[in-house]
């Protein structure tokens, strides 16, 4: 069994799922007292399961911002080329970035799914693991 087998099980999901299928937004509301509640993302259960499994592995890099900076990666650009030649440390840092930054940028997971970032990260991780065996 591969080390991150539970994560690899999501590859078919990320190959076919669309942004529209994984997220819906709660409506903004104003209550009787005039307090405004902003909309927030509500994710498909499979996305939540993926994030939970990611968080339970030893893969997350709690110094991910420093690691990304060390590698000279800009997170504002497309990640496909960077991921294609990333080592496991950088894969872990980029994955951690997307997992953890959702709390600061609502909808980031949906963007990662739309841009196939999670798919590319899982494929690269699997490729690296196969090389080591």
Automatic annotation (TrEMBL):
It comes from the Bacteria. This is Uncharacterized protein. It comes from Paenibacillus plantiphilus. The lineage of its organism: Bacteria, Bacillati, Bacillota, Bacilli, Bacillales.
């Amino acid at each position: 069994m591969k080390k991150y087998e539970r994560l690899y099980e999501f590859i078919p999901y990320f190959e076919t799922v669309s942004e529209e299928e994984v997220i819906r937004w709660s409506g903004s509301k104003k209550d009787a007292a005039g307090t405004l509640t902003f909309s927030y993302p509500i994710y498909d259960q499979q996305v939540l399961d993926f994030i939970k499994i990611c968080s339970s592995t030893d893969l997350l890099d709690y110094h991910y911002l420093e690691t990304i900076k060390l590698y000279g990666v800009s997170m504002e650009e497309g990640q496909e080329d960077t991921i294609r030649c990333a080592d496991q440390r950088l894969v872990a840092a980029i994955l951690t970035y997307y997992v953890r930054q959702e709390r600061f940028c609502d909808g980031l997971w949906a963007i990662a799914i739309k841009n196939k970032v999670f798919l590319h990260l899982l494929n690269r991780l699997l490729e690296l693991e196969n090389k080591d065996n």
